[in-house]
Amino acid sequence: DHTVFESEVVGAILALSSIPSLPHIKHVFLGLDNQSAIRALHHPRQQPAQYLLLAFHDELKRLMNRIPNLTLHIGWVPGHVDFPPNERVDTEAKFAAENNDPPHPQLPTLLLSPLPRSTAAAKAAFQAQT
């Protein structure tokens, strides 16, 4: 129902929402293995999944209000090449996706209910069937 791009942006939103639970954190590197998502987070423009990019920037504003001296760097990390931190995140993401537990109450509001089905994912699924 969703694209890899959307998953990466949702992961970035989740990462931002978890930062306040880490005491005394001042510097964060948010590593993504999707360069399109990195570009979109740095320079949002009108595009599919725009609502997720807006949600990321809303979460970032809330975070910066809570921790004004925080520095955040968003950068690329290699995906699927035995990079242990990325492999661990992938494992945890797959576990969470397969888990049917109710959402954690401290999730950003947008993520407390299912996201709308992606038009891009629906088109790709249709093309794969035809």
Quickly describe the structure.
This protein is mainly α.
Descriptive overview:
It is a single chain. With 130 residues, the protein is mostly helical. Helices cover 51% and strands 9% of the residues. It contains 5 helices and 2 strands, in the order H-E-H-H-E-H-H. It has helices at 4-18, 35-42, 50-66, 84-98, 119-129, and strands at residues 27-32, 71-76. A two-stranded parallel sheet has the order 1-2. Helix 1 (4-18) runs parallel beside helix 3. The longest helix is centred in the middle third of the chain and has 17 residues, at 50-66. The protein is globular, with a radius of gyration of 15 Å. InterPro entries: RNaseH-like_sf (IPR012337), RNaseH_domain (IPR002156), RNaseH_sf (IPR036397). This is RNase H type-1 domain-containing protein.
List the helices and strands and how they pair.
Layout: H1 4-18, E1 27-32, H2 35-42, H3 50-66, E2 71-76, H4 84-98, H5 119-129
Parallel strand pairs: 1-2
Helix pairs in contact: 1-3
| Global Rg | 15 Å
* Percent of residues in beta strands: 5-15%
Given helix and strand content, the structural type is mainly alpha
**What quaternary form is this?**
single chain
Number of helices: 5
For the sheet with most strands, the description reads: 2 strands, parallel
Strand order of the biggest β-sheet:
1-2
The percentage helix is 40-55%
Low-pLDDT segments? none
Q: Total strand count, please? A: 2
**Mean pLDDT across all residues, rounded?**
84
Shape: globular
Head-to-tail CA distance between termini: 17 Å
H and E string: HEHHEHH
